[in-house]
Structures are given as structure tokens and as C-alpha cells.
Design a protein that fits this description.
Elements: E1 9-17, E2 20-26, H1 27-34, E3 47-56, E4 61-70, H2 85-91, E5 93-97, E6 102-106, H3 131-141, H4 177-278, H5 282-356, E7 361-365, E8 369-373, H6 378-383, H7 385-392, H8 397-408, H9 444-449
Parallel strand pairs: 4-6
Antiparallel strand pairs: 1-2, 1-3, 3-4, 5-6, 7-8
Helix pairs in contact: 4-5, 7-8
Keywords: Coiled coil
Protein name: ATPase involved in DNA repair
Coiled coil: 199-280
């Protein structure tokens, strides 16, 4: 009797975009992409979601590994990428049944090697878009050109055929109690295996949906924080302008009050002169009164005209000064940009030379993992590394700093009545987007009370 051959498996790699599967290739072609022999310009400066597949010769998926792959500005694969896809596929846990029994599945929520989890991603298992169903249908279409092995009917050797007793040709064999128990045990085991497989599928789907919801919530929080910061900056600018206008109004009111006091003093002086002249006669008094009122009216009108002219001149001067300030500010900004450009040119030239030599800029930040920094993002990373890492985690810089302090020392930050810090150990929150101030960095007693403020 000839031994049965183990079915051969074909290795393939599939790329995903927002619409679904966008590219398929056999593993030798993928190795050419990794070695830089073949480039993919359509994926330039992008992080692609990919899947490594093991497919049998009947176009049935047996193993899947969902992983990330970064491409540079010219569409070349990351030279530092070295994920052991074959080992992950062999050591992965059980997944859904795609037609040939439960597959082996490795993803972010089901990774056999913990430190490689950051390089994997979870597939979508929603009814609207199921990535595993897309893989099954794509492999069935056989766009890779795999030579399909048809299932041939197994021929029985005539020498192995045995003829039953003549008296048992027509009478069915009696089903003993032992046979019934064995059949019941077999059916119970099959039912348990199917139930366990359904439970694993539902857990994987729930994990995928939970992670997608958390990422969407983190993006919405980040956008809300940015919008709030912009509105607060506008409010501060308007408050500053209001204070300047109030100072100008206070200055003008002080000037008007001084002029009013001088007018009052002049009026009192005129009244004293009038009372002195009244002793010399009514007629002369009337003449002087009329003359006084005429001169007073003329002085008032002249003073009012003069101050109106002064106010108009002041308004023109203020407008000219504002225009001059704007021109000077534009000139300062232009000179600052020129200085920054001159400073960047020296460092930028060195970075470009290193990038041409194949140097890749990789940094590690807690919560974000190992980040491959494109050459265009190096200046922004140098200006504020924590802000760059916070943007990769979809949180604000302030929240990332607070989470980092919690991550380095996970203890309660609440203040006790005597002013000391509580310091009770708390569970560490590994993801910045899940960190909530006043909840994640407080022990259950202070988190439930909510009255004590956390230590700064």
C-alpha cells in the first residue's frame, strides 16, 4: 500500500486598502519586494495592511497572518522589516472555518509572540465587510494562477474487499449499547468542538470591533481637543484686543476729564470777574456778561474743534501705527523663516545624504512602539518628539505626558488630607487612548469618591 502524500501548501501575500483587497502576489514576488528588486510606487510613503496566506492545492486557506508593512517615499519596502511570517503561521491559534476546517490565525489580538503584537492588525469581521471572507473569495478566484489539484475518487483494491456473511446481507447489524454510547460521545465531542470554534470566532470579532471603536473614539477625542485649543486661542486673542481698547478708552476719558476741569476753572474765574463788574453798574455788567458768554462759547467751540482734530489725528496715527506694526511683523516672520530655512538646509542636507545611503530613522516611544520616521517628518519630530508620538497614538500632547508619567510609575496620584500623595499601586494602562485623568491614575477609593484632587 502506497503512503498518502501530505498536500502541498502555496504561500501568498495580499494587500488591503479602504475598499478591500487591492493586490495579490505569490511569496517569491513578495521576497523581491522586500529585497528592493521590485518597487510599489502606488504605496509610496504609506503603511499598508497585508496578509500572509498558506493555501492548499484545492484553493482553500489554511493559515493567515495579518501584518503591517511600511513603504518609503519611492515605494520601496522598509529595509528593517523582518517579521517571521512562516513561524507565526505555524504557531498561530485556531481561527474560523473557511472551507477546510479551522484555520490558523495570527493577528493583533491573537499573537503567539507578545513582542510582535505591535506589528500585527485585527481583521474586520462585521457583516458589511469580513476580511476573512474576502480572502476566501479572492483565493477561490485563483488570480494567482495556482495549479489546482482535483479531488480524484479513491479506488479500492479488490484484494482488500471483504465479503460479509450471507445471513447478514439483508438484516441490519444490531446496534449495541456500547456502540450507541460511542456514537453519543463522538457527537458530543463534535458539538463541543463546533461550540468552542464559534466562541473563538465571536471573541475575535468582539475584540476587533472593540479595537476599531477605541481607535475611532481616540480620533474623535483628538479632533475635539484640537478644536477646543483653537477656540481657546481665538478667545485669548479677542480678550487681549479688548484689554487694549479698554486702555485706550481709559486714556481718552482721563484727557476729557482734565479738559473739563480746566473749563470749570476758567468758568469760575469768569464768574468772579462778573461779580466784580456788577458793582460798577447793570449796563456794564450786561455788556460784560454778553461778552463773557460769547468768549466762553467761542472758547468751548474752539476747544471742541481742536480736540476733535486731535482725536482724528490720533486715529490716523493709530491706523498708521497698526499698518506699520503689521508690516514689521511680516518682515520679522519672513526673516525668521529665512533663518529657519538656513538652519534646516545644513541639517537637512546631512539627513538627505543619510537617507540616500539607506539609513532609516526609527525611534521608540511607550504606547506608540517603534516608529519609522519619514525624512519629511524629521524636523517636526525634532521640534517636539512627544507631540509626534502623541499624534501617532491619536491623543493630545498633554494627555500623552500624563499617561507617560502614569506608565512609568502606575500609582495613585490623589492628595490626602495631610497634603501627601496617596501612592497606592494601580493597574497600568498600556494604551494612551484608554488613559482617563482622575480614573486611570487613581486607586478605587479616590476614584469612587471623586472629591480629592490629584497631585500635580
Amino acid at each position: 500500500m502506497s503512503m498518502l502524500k501530505k498536500p502541498q501548501l502555496v504561500e501568498a501575500v495580499v494587500f488591503f486598502n479602504d475598499r478591500g483587497i487591492c493586490k495579490q502576489m505569490l511569496y517569491p514576488e513578495f521576497e523581491a519586494v522586500l529585497d528592493g528588486v521590485v518597487g510599489l510606487p502606488e504605496y509610496a510613503d504609506r503603511q499598508m495592511r497585508s496578509a500572509y496566506l498558506l493555501v492548499n492545492l484545492r484553493l482553500q486557506v489554511r493559515s493567515v497572518v495579518f501584518f503591517y508593512l511600511d513603504f518609503d517615499e519611492e515605494g520601496r519596502a522598509d529595509t528593517g522589516w523582518n517579521l517571521p511570517l512562516r513561524q507565526l503561521a505555524e504557531r498561530a491559534g485556531r481561527g474560523p472555518d473557511l472551507g477546510a476546517g479551522p484555520i490558523r490565525l495570527a493577528c493583533a489580538s491573537q499573537c503567539p509572540v507578545a513582542w510582535q503584537q505591535m506589528h500585527l492588525w485585527d481583521p474586520s469581521l462585521t457583516p458589511e465587510r469580513n476580511d476573512l471572507v474576502l480572502l476566501r473569495d479572492a483565493i477561490k478566484a485563483n488570480n494567482l494562477g495556482v495549479l489546482v489539484e482535483e479531488e480524484a475518487p479513491q479506488a479500492l483494491d479488490a484484494e482488500r474487499l471483504q465479503v460479509a456473511q450471507e445471513d447478514s446481507w439483508y438484516a441490519p447489524p444490531e446496534i449495541t449499547r456500547e456502540m450507541a454510547e460511542q456514537l453519543a460521545d463522538k457527537m458530543e465531542k463534535e458539538h463541543r468542538l463546533k461550540t468552542a470554534q464559534l466562541v473563538r470566532q465571536q471573541r475575535l470579532r468582539l475584540t476587533s470591533l472593540s479595537q476599531q471603536n477605541e481607535e475611532a473614539l481616540a480620533r474623535m477625542r483628538h479632533a475635539a481637543d484640537q478644536s477646543t485649543a483653537e477656540l481657546q486661542q481665538q478667545i485669548r486673542a479677542l480678550q487681549h484686543a479688548l484689554r487694549e481698547q479698554q486702555e485706550i478708552n481709559a486714556t481718552l476719558e482721563a484727557q476729557l476729564a482734565g479738559e473739563a476741569e480746566r473749563y470749570q476753572a476758567s468758568r469760575e474765574e469768569m464768574n468772579l470777574q462778573l461779580r466784580a463788574l456788577e458793582r460798577h453798574g447793570r449796563t456794564e455788567t450786561d455788556i460784560l456778561r454778553a461778552q463773557f458768554e460769547g468768549e466762553l462759547q467761542a472758547r468751548v467751540e474752539a476747544a471742541i474743534a481742536e480736540y476733535r482734530e486731535l482725536i482724528a489725528v490720533r486715529d490716523v496715527e493709530l491706523a498708521y501705527r497698526d499698518q506699520l506694526d503689521a508690516q514689521l511683523q511680516d518682515e520679522v516672520n519672513r526673516l525668521r523663516e529665512v533663518c529657519e530655512a538656513l538652519e534646516r538646509q545644513s541639517g537637512q542636507r546631512v539627513l538627505e545624504q543619510l537617507s540616500d545611503l539607506g539609513v532609516v530613522f526609527v525611534v521608540y516611544h511607550p504606547g506608540a512602539g517603534h516608529l519609522t520616521i519619514p525624512l519629511a517628518d524629521v524636523p517636526r519630530y525634532q521640534d517636539n518628539p512627544l507631540a509626534y508620538a502623541a499624534a501617532k497614538c491619536f491623543v493630545s500632547e498633554g494627555q500623552y505626558r500624563q499617561w507617560l508619567a502614569h506608565y512609568q510609575q502606575p500609582s495613585c496620584e490623589a492628595s490626602l488630607a495631610n497634603g501627601d500623595r496617596c501612592g497606592m499601586p494601580v493597574d497600568r494602562v498600556d494604551a494612551p487612548s484608554r488613559f482617563v485623568v482622575g480614573e486611570s491614575n487613581c486607586c478605587p477609593r479616590h476614584r469612587a469618591g471623586g472629591r480629592l484632587r490629584t497631585a500635580g
